Hints:
This protein is of the alpha/beta class. It is built from 27 helices and 14 strands.
Amino acid sequence: MNLAHEKIIKLLLESNGPTTSRNLSQMIGISARSVKTHISQINEEAGATVINSGNQGYMINRNIAQSLLKKNETDIPQNFDERRNYIIREFLLKHISSLEIEELCNKICVSEATLRADIARMNRLYEGYKICFRFRKDDLLIEGPERSLRKMYSLNLLDNVESSYFDYDLLENEFPDFDIHYIVRVVRKTFQKHNYFINEFALFNLTLHIAVIIDRLKKKNYVQPLEDVKMTEEEKELICEICEQLEEEYNVVFTRGEQTEIYILFKSNANPPTTDEYEKLRELVGNEISDDALSLIEDIRNRYYVDLSNPTFTVPFALHLKNLIFRAKNGSSIYNPMSASIIQSQPIVFDIALFVAMKLMEEYDIEINEGEICFLALHIGGEIERQKHTSQRIKTVLLCPTYMDLSSQLYNKLLLLYSNEINIVSVVQQPSEIGSMSYDLLISTLRTESGKAVSVVISPFLSQNDKTNISDAIETARNRITAGMLKKHFDDCFEEELFFYKPSQVKSRDKAIRMLAENLMRIGYVRDNFYDNVMKREKAAATVFGYVAVPHSVEMDALKTSVSVLIDPSGIGWGEKTVNVVLMMSIQAHDHAEFTQLYEALIAVFSNEEYIHMICNCRTFKEYKSTLLSLID
């Protein structure tokens, strides 16, 4: 939003009736035609009708306009990384390929010379993605393959989503009349008692909603129970236990409507993701809201390049939409204590939520206030944060018939045991349901083919022997993933200019690190302080693993991710040890998520003495590449 947009919105908000383009042009000092252009841009950038045009002039949607202004009130970026994120967000949120230079400089409060210096650094930073920022007359342009642009936008979004959503102390401050941590303990213990797994994101979401429900009950606000919601006896027992403990502690009464609300939250946060999840979704929320939820998720993917199509998000999201629409149609809303925190710290996530809200307002002819928009942001940001935390876990499919609710029981047992290692993306009943699913590990109670993925057959009751076999399968799957990752990124990380065989006069740790660091600085892959940062890390704790050393900087601030290779069969003194291979890693900030996998993959290969002997025979980069790739096949 530029200054002209902001002035038009503020003037229309101050007006008590329709305002003509002529009046707006006189108040702002621009032509009537420019006013019309700016209003068209405001509506286009918002993705909805913020300003309506009528016979008597322009009218503004106050809820949307106020949210847009609040979203625009962001702090001025203070350093290169903040300016880089701001520029990328401008391209991302406005869906444009050029920015006006003078206007951009005014927004981030820097000179054009500083902007040009920043762009030069950004071009080095994103060179590996084949993305280029360039100046053309009065504009800054972004160019690159669509796939690379989408990856950059997605990484920028993930990097800027923080764990500020899961702030129990903030909830304590907002609900001072009752103990939030007591709710957490009740939910956690009751879930454990009934052998249900709940992750930290689902736990916070459930706690927040229960706190809102209790607050509403204390003010004598109730909800009507949804029809056709059936619970199993075990589920009913769990919900009743939670409600009874909360009733006693907070002196409230959970009606059937409130119990149903908590049950729906429980089902959406603790139920295994199955292939028929969308059919269940239609049963819970109806075809119209189900279709709208899926359509919004697709719109978010196309507009913001983030995939929220996982059933673990889709089901609670759609249920939330149903309740939100019901409240809006009845002129009620719920208080959101996280609003200020979300708007200030998560502008992109709030923008996505605002986009969803505007679509819903147009579709259902309702008004959605800021607090409700921030509840949407809570769902969206929570899913993005969950994806960040599960990206390093092994993508797993569970194959188990649903007889006597076995699949649900086994799903929860597995997550209680292995939630830090596996991410169960789907639960299927028949081998035919697996189809073209993407996964790395198949845990099955039936003997079946798993394609290239690792598979393990277990009993439905998870014996001690099953647990041992699962642990072995997880280790095998992890080794395959790291080897595959090394193979996939070999050409991105290794290159001939970074390969050295038995260089003269390099027989000590310090000389080896200095030679490799100076070479990286000469090429332009690292900054001037790279050598000092590597030595700082090395002196804190040596990076020697057998006959290989893997020195790297304490900061992930390289201009390009790379691995320099130094081979010396006669050995290099490394403190009290001797190494034959040195792998110096320089890591770019955007590749930090892959750093651990790359690091583990290299250690796995180079910790094998037989492999080290074979690699020490490689005198050229071509020989090194051929040997290393053959070892990880």
